[in-house]
Structures are given as structure tokens and as C-alpha cells.
Amino acid sequence: MKNIIAIISTICLLATGAFGFAPAATRAVVAPRTAAVPTSLGVFGKRKTEAQKAEEAEKAAKYWQGDWVCKDCGYIYNRAECAGMYFEEQGPGFRCPQCSGPRRRYAKKVGDRVGTTLDGGDAPILLFSFGGLIATIAFGIWAVQNL
Fold first, then answer.
1. pLDDT digit of tens for each residue in the chain (147 aa)?
2. Please, are residues 75 and 99 in contact by the beta-carbon 8 Å criterion?
3. Phi, psi of 127 (to 5 degrees)
4. Strand pairing partners for 109?
5. In terms of Cα–Cα distance, which of 105, 101, 141 is closest to 120?
6. How far apart are CA 75 and CA 96, in angstroms?
7. Which of 56, 113, 112, 115 is nearest to 86 (CA)?
8. 112-135 CB burial, b ≥16 within 10 A, e <16
């Protein structure tokens, strides 16, 4: 066993030193660019006019200026990550990017408190769950006595 380890380590040393993982030829050094080249791609777009700025401010006034928070995972909705759309503009197929929770599970955050969700919170779910539990127990008692 020691002989095998010695042979493998010798081969590794020879391969890295003699036959190498080193480059075969020296690389040429490229001088950095000193002059700025203007781009014709229009990457950054045009400056907004005063009318466009006013229109954008008017649009922003229509929507909630606070944060929207996913009640399932705590993710805070970020316009920049979601194509620049306000939360209210998202369609019914929108899902939380972090936990894939539906849009209705988001709630408005005011200060340190998170409000109710768009579907009314968990109250309807809890009511129907307890109602189903009571109905199941009642049916079980009835079945034991009558069957």
C-alpha cells in the first residue's frame, strides 16, 4: 500500500514539475486603454424630460409607497428586481421570487408592523380547518354508535 502511494505521489510531482501544467509560451502583456471611447449603443438611454418626470411622479403617487412583504417567507418586494413594475401592476400569476408563494400572500408593511394579506389573512383557512375537524369528529362518533 505504501508503495502505491509513493508511486502516485512521484508521478504527480513529475507531472506538475517537468511536463507541467505551466503555459507553453509566455503571454503578451496588453497595455490598458487610456482614452475613453464613446459608445454609440445608447446603453444608458436618453435623459428624461420634465414632462416624463412629472408623469412618472404622478404614476408613483397612485401606488403604495411603502414595502410589500411576503407573509410566508418575509421577502420584501423590490421593484428593481421585478422589471421595474409596482407591486399593484403585477398580474395574478406573480409568485414570490424566494418561496414561490402566490401574490395574495403579500401584505403592506407600515413601520414595523405588517398588515393583512390581500386574501384577508389566515382567518378563513383556520375557520374552515376547525370546522372540518369538528365535522370529522362528529361523524366518527355517529359512525361508532350507529354501525
1. 667 776 777 776 665 555 555 555 566 555 555 555 555 565 667 788 888 888 888 888 888 888 889 988 999 998 888 888 888 888 888 999 999 999 888 888 877 777 665 555 667 778 889 999 999 999 999 999 998
2. yes
3. -60, -45
4. 67, 114
5. 105
6. 8
7. 56
8. eebeebbbeeeeeeeeeeeeeeee
Residue 17: all three cell numbers together: 514539475
**Can you point out the beta strands (E) in the chain?**
67-70, 106-110, 113-117
Q: Name the residue with cell 502583456.
A: 29
3-state secondary structure of 106: strand
Which backbone phi and psi does 24 adopt, to 5 degrees? -75, -35
Rounded Cα distance, 123 and 15, in Å: 69
